[in-house]
Amino acid sequence: MQSCSRYDRQVRQKVGYCAAPDAVKLAYAVHGGGPPIVRVATWMTHLEFDWESPVWRHWLDALGDGHTLIRYDERGCGLSDRDVDDISFDAWVADLEAVVDAAGVDRFALLGVSAGAAVAVAYAARHPERLTHLVLYGGYARGRTLRGAGERRLQEALVAAISAGWANPDPTFRHLFSMLFLPAGTPEQMGWYDDLQRHSTSAATAVRLYDARGRLNVVDLAARVRTRTLVVHAAEDRVVPADEGRLLATLLPEAQLVLLESANHILLSDEPAWTRFVAELRAFLGTEPVSASPGAGIEELSPRELDVLALVAAGLTNEVIADRLSLSVRTVERHLTNTYVKLRVSGKAGRAAAAARFSEAQRP
């Protein structure tokens, strides 16, 4: 069943709905163009809010550049049904099956991030004929409760933190997760992630989701996967230790392992590890990005972001821009972060690249 499709004016994202076997309504989105790649649902996403995210936007841009990206909000989260009875590994696998069938793709590359990697492994074991490639980032074959007493205690503490503070307007408890997921994140990035978690689901559902993740086990299923697999992991990951990525790669018969120099569980746009991840992904999939026009992305900027970028292109500092526009310096920095994400520029050269893109777009 598919219904209620619409197009986002800025990103031309098509959102549709399909029904899982237990009638839970799942929201999925399609954008980009090229060979299909399906991203398994992962922790705390929202199909609409992710486009404005300094944490997720660069992932969406990169995955949709040269590919048709299909992604969905997991049951209980985002635009999918929030009030659900069944939150389990089997339900997650069935949800993935429902989404790919509704999207109408026959063969595709499958990307599993974090706990989504285990779901991807199960799907690959069941449906090898559907997959061209399997990519697992920050994944694991066994949940935290299966990794020893210390990890079990940590799992219990994190579940208690969710239960105690998730719905509180004070982000203290949610910020614990943001610091684990994004230890190198800026205050703005972590603040955005704090808010995303609260807006994506309820405290009660978050507890159930995190508890189910702690009990995942695809150790036996992994041995049955015959799809060529790329396993990528941040070497200093605070959420899923790199040893779990190594174990996952060892269990998969056709896997290659790439370790990245990062502590972030979600790679950020301005770190070298992100650039390497995209390069490794494209080399593995054998695809190239679609060449962008010099001014590409400018049309996605808000009026205020354009005001700020125009002054950057004129050579003004953030402090002078803030004074000129009657803004705080932090607000200027926030607008620039959003601008860099939308223009797909990052790192130390991001400011100059964004200014050049703006100047190019002003030419007749």
Automatic annotation (TrEMBL):
It comes from Kribbella capetownensis. It comes from the Bacteria. One of its GO terms (molecular function) is DNA binding. GO terms for biological process: regulation of DNA-templated transcription. Pfam families: Abhydrolase_1, GerE. InterPro entries: AB_hydrolase_1 (IPR000073), AB_hydrolase_fold (IPR029058), AB_hydrolase_sf (IPR050266), Sig_transdc_resp-reg_C-effctor (IPR016032), Tscrpt_reg_LuxR_C (IPR000792), WH-like_DNA-bd_sf (IPR036388). Residues 294-359 form the HTH luxR-type domain. This is Alpha/beta fold hydrolase. The keyword Signal does not apply. GO terms for cellular component: membrane. Keywords: Hydrolase.
